[in-house]
Structure of PTS system, lactose/cellobiose family IIA component:
Amino acid sequence: MDEKIFELSFEIIGYAGNAKGMAFEAIAKAKEGNIEEARILLKESKEEVNKAHRCQTELIQQEACGKKTDVSVVLIHAQDHLMNTMNYQMLADEIIDIHERFKKLESR
């Protein structure tokens, strides 16, 4: 496997892992009633995913320029990790909204 592809794969895994952790923490903050803090954490989570996307884009650009990308388990894992994190972020966004609604209803 090309060393650059291996490096980018692990960067994607790292950024996606950080992002998922932040999204998980955002849900926990929302559950505690800290909606504003939850939204800040989710925003930071999305910024981490953007870093992973930049790595992914670099791989895509290399392939578009004719440099064949060797597909490995590490690269597949990185892509899977990124996709799952993005799905988790979408769910976290919805869960935070639900907790915000509960909080408003409870304060009536």
Notes: The domain at 3-106 is CATH 1.20.58.80 (Methane Monooxygenase Hydroxylase; Chain G, domain 1). The longest helix spans residues 73-106. The helical segments are 3-32, 35-64, 73-106. The mean pLDDT is 95.
